[in-house]
Write a structure and sequence with these properties.
The chain is an alpha+beta fold. 63% of the residues lie in helices and 6% in strands. Helix 2 (11-53) runs antiparallel to helix 4.
């Protein structure tokens, strides 16, 4: 049983019901949109919260190794990722649910409109046939009454003795004509009645059931779409739950990995100065005429007042606005911290020097390829990059020598540059004074002669300038970084690009 057979006479009910179903589908689309907006706003507020509580302060504070502070930053990062998952949920709801349902809703509205229009057209067509039927019926009724009236008049004329034969014949002809017209109207009425019954039968047993069946199928599809929308509403969020759980698990793991002992030891490692506490204050006896001489062997220690050690705003702990930052003026740091900072700078410079050397080597290889096959590229186009890389290497070498010299001053070891190698040898604090100059000190000896192919200004630290055609002494060959060490006629020694000279 379907709508066409059971609800053939409930056109208004079906129309209201289908409209109510489409309104419900539209309400659900609006609901999902508002839910997506809530998720989007929630994610935005979470991101603002993470940004508000992210680590601020000086670079030294940001680079601290304390795990509890870094863990909080990791928590904020994971919460930021959590916000990203919420944004993804909002986007998926908008795309997979709202977009599809809006398109389907438009199609269902159009289909319902067409079905109702078909019913209206069929009803109008049936009404036209009914009007023709009524007209033929009234005409038949009218003509039959006229015919009956004419027959009665003819009978009266026949019974009247005063009527002539001509009057009787004329009355009979008139009665016969009216009867014939009435018969034709009767036949027309019968034909119109047959047509109307046929159209009515087709309307109630064919057209209306077909259209109502289509509306029923449309309603079932709408219900199925709405049901699938309910499922997608849940499944869309379930898909991101593993990622959300992963973020929350990472936050839990971050909290469990915090080591309170390691925290306190890290503070010692970061801020210990290596200095010894001040000695006891000596008793000065003014009753004696002669002040006892101080022990010459006792180490000289600065006198520090107790309140200076524990005062929160003493000059030693509070930063001075006019004083350069510790990262710029390392000489103001305690020995241990200064040695640590210098070692970090040396490591960073070595990494940068390695990168620049590899880039220089790659450029030289590319230049050689271009020189062998000019179709691949112009060798001269690489010259600006080669020069820039050479400047960078020279500058980094100068910084490295400066930091190594400063490190040797604080007892962190000194570095002796091997004339025939790029490697540096570190000497411990104990034998730093045993490496004095002796009679067998080696002097750099040129290993060859070379000529300058291009002019070089030697603007970087550790480099020397030269002019085109200048004769130079080759002190150290290229070890893969694109530089050679040369000596000028005036005795200046430094580095120049290997591609700028020709060995003779």
């Amino acid at each position: 049983m379907d709508w066409g057979s059971a609800l053939w006479d409930q056109h208004d009910v079906i129309e209201r019901h289908t409209q109510s179903g489409l309104d419900l589908l539209e309400r659900y689309v609006k609901f999902v949109k508002e839910r997506a907006d809530i998720e989007q706003n929630y994610a935005k507020q979470l991101r603002n919260l993470c940004k508000k509580h992210s680590r601020r302060g000086s670079k030294e504070d940001q680079d601290t190794k304390l795990t509890d502070q870094q863990a909080f930053q990791d928590v904020l990062n994971e919460l930021n990722e959590y916000a990203g998952q919420r944004e993804l949920l909002s986007e998926n709801m908008t795309v997979t649910i709202c977009a599809d349902l809006i398109k389907s809703l438009q199609e269902l509205r159009l289909e319902r409109k067409i079905c109702l229009s078909d019913i209206k057209k069929a009803q109008q067509n049936l009404d036209i046939f009914f009007k023709h039927l009524e007209l033929s019926k009234r005409r038949f009724e009218k003509e039959w009454k006229e015919a009956e009236k004419t027959i009665q008049q003819t009978e009266k004329i026949q019974l009247d003795t005063n009527s002539t034969k001509a009057d009787v014949e004329k009355a009979k002809q008139q009665a016969h004509l009216r009867t014939h017209i009435a018969d034709e109207c009767k036949n027309e009425y019968a034909v119109q009645l047959q047509r109307y019954n046929k159209e009515q039968n087709q309307f109630y047993h064919s057209e209306i059931p077909d259209v109502f069946k289509k509306l029923q199928e449309m309603e079932e599809r709408r219900i199925r779409m709405l049901a699938d929308g309910y499922v997608q509403f849940s499944e869309t969020e379930k898909k991101i739950l593993p990622n959300i759980s992963k973020c929350l698990d990472t936050i839990s793991t971050t909290g469990r990995n915090i080591n309170e002992k390691q925290e306190t030891m890290a503070l010692i490692e970061q801020y210990k100065t290596g200095l010894t506490p001040p000695a006891d204050v000596e008793f000065e006896d003014y009753s004696q005429g002669v002040k006892p001489a101080a022990n010459e062997n006792a180490p000289h220690l600065p006198k520090v007042r107790i309140k200076q050690l524990f005062h929160k705003k003493n000059k030693a702990t509070s930063p001075d606005k006019t004083m350069p930052s510790p990262m710029k003026d390392l000489s103001r740091l305690p020995p241990d911290k200064r040695r640590k900072c210098l070692q970090e700078k040396i490591d960073n410079v070595n990494k940068e020097l390695q990168i620049e050397s590899e880039q220089s080597e790659a450029l030289m290889k590319m230049k050689g390829v271009y020189e062998q096959n000019s179709q691949l590229g112009d060798p001269s186009s690489l010259q600006p990059q080669i020069i820039q890389t050479a400047h960078n290497i020279a500058k980094l070498r100068g910084e490295l020598n400066k930091y190594q010299a400063q490190l040797s001053e604080v007892g962190g070891g000194t570095f002796i540059q091997n004339p025939s190698s790029e490697s540096s040898v570190s000497l411990s604090d104990e034998n730093i004074y045993e490496c004095g100059f002796d009679e067998d000190f080696d002097v750099d000896v040129p290993i060859g002669q070379c000529k300058a192919l291009y002019s070089y200004d030697g603007g970087s630290d550790g480099a020397v300038c030269m002019q085109v055609g200048e004769q130079l002494s080759l002190m150290e060959e290229d070890h893969g970084d694109g530089w050679v060490r040369v000596q000028k006629a005036n005795g200046d020694v430094g580095y120049v690009p290997a591609s700028y000279i020709q060995i003779i």
